[in-house]
Amino acid sequence: MRELDETDLQILELLTEDARRPFSDIAEQVDLSPPAVSDRVDKLRESGVIRRFTLDLDRSQLRAGVPVLVRLDLPSTEVAAVTDNLRESEGVEHVFVTVEGDVVFSARFRSDAVREGIDEVVDLKRVTDYDVTIVSEMEWVPSVGGTEFALTCAECGNTVTSEGESDRIGGNQYHFCCPSCAARFREQYERFSADAE
Amino acid sequence: MRELDETDLQILELLTEDARRPFSDIAEQVDLSPPAVSDRVDKLRESGVIRRFTLDLDRSQLRAGVPVLVRLDLPSTEVAAVTDNLRESEGVEHVFVTVEGDVVFSARFRSDAVREGIDEVVDLKRVTDYDVTIVSEMEWVPSVGGTEFALTCAECGNTVTSEGESDRIGGNQYHFCCPSCAARFREQYERFSADAE
DNA sequence: AGTGAAAATCTCTCAGT
DNA sequence: ACTGAGAGATTTTCACT
C-alpha cells in the first residue's frame, strides 16, 4: 500500500468538509500547487481510500417510511449472500457484519409494511432469527479523524512510520508500527473474537 | 416544505454517485441549463436535504483500531447529552437513537483499549448498561432511493402530490398523500413504539 | 513528486422570458 | 423558474525540475 502522509490526510479532511472545494483552495492550505493536489486526489481514488465523492443527505426529508435497525442471526455460510443482496436493495443505508457472524443493517420501510420490507431485502429462508428496532434518529458523522492526523499503530497507538506494516484482518486494513505489534494484535483479535460468542 | 420533484431527485441521484460531476453534465441528463441545475442544488442545500458534499472513505485503510458497534442503555433524559457528545467525538461514525430510547453507535477504537475508547466518547455515569460487538465489516450504502423516484406516502405508498402534507414525527420527516394517512400513520407509529418496549 | 503557464472546461452572473 | 451568453474561476495538460 502507498504511504499516506500528513498532506494526504489534510486533503481528505478538507474534502470531507466540502467535497466541491476547489483544488486551488486546498492547494493553498496544504502548501502545494493545484496540479499536485489533483494528482494526490487521483491517487487516493485509485488506492481506494476515497471510495467516491458523494452527498450527505437528510434522508428523513427524502425517503418515505420508518427508519429501522435490523439484526439478523444466520449461518456464517449465508453471510456473503445476504449482505450482497442488502447492498443492492432499496432503502438499505448501512450494513455491518459482526465478528460473531451476525448482520446488522439500517433501512427505511413503509410503516405498515416493515416485515414485508425486510422480506424484500433479505431472503428470510437463509436467516435463523431476526429482530427489528425502530429508530427515531439516524445520523452519519462524516469526519476523517479530527485532530489526530498521523496513522497510528492499531496495537500500541504510536505513529506509524515507513518502517511500519499494514495488514488486512477480518476484512479491515490495520496499520502497525512494527512486526511485534502486528503479531500481538492478531492474537488479541482472535481472542476477542472467540470471547464474543 | 418545498416540493421535491423528479428532477431534484435525479440531481441528487447523480451527485450521490459523483459529487464533483460538473453541473453542465447533470444539466444535459435532466434536460435543463447549467444555471438551472446550480439553482436547484443551492435550494437543496438551503432546505437541508443536502447536508454537505463529502467523501465516502474506506476508513479501514485510514483509521487505526477495531470497528465496533455499541449499544447504550440509558435514561431518556441523558440521550441528548450523550448523542451530542458522540457526534463530536473522534472515531465515531454512525449514531442511531431507537424509539425505546437506546443509543446505538459505530466507532473505531484501539484494539487494546476498546473499553477506554468507549469511556472517552460516552460519559458512562449517564449510562445504565452497555454492550459492545466487534464488527468485521462496516459499509455505508450511499444511494438516494434507486429506481423509486417520486416521494411516496409513508402510510399507503402512493405518490405524494402537492395536495399531500409532511410532518416531523420522532425526529424524522414523513410525507403523506392525505390527512387521513397522516393520522393513521401517527397511530401506528405510537402503537409500534409501545410494542417495542 | 512537484511547478508554472497555457488551454480547456466549468461555474456564476445577469439581462431577458 | 428557466435560458443564453459572457465574465471569471477552476481544472487539466504539458514541458521542465
TrEMBL record, chains A, B:
Domain HTH asnC-type: 4-67
Keywords: DNA-binding, Transcription, Transcription regulation
Gene Ontology molecular function: any one: DNA-binding transcription factor activity
Parts of the chain that traverse the membrane: none
UniProt key word Ribonucleoprotein: no
Pfam annotation, one family: TRASH_HVO_1752_C
PANTHER family in the record: HTH-TYPE TRANSCRIPTIONAL REGULATOR LYSM, TRANSCRIPTIONAL REGULATOR, ASNC FAMILY
Name of the protein in its database record: AsnC family transcriptional regulator
Source organism of the structure: Halogeometricum borinquense
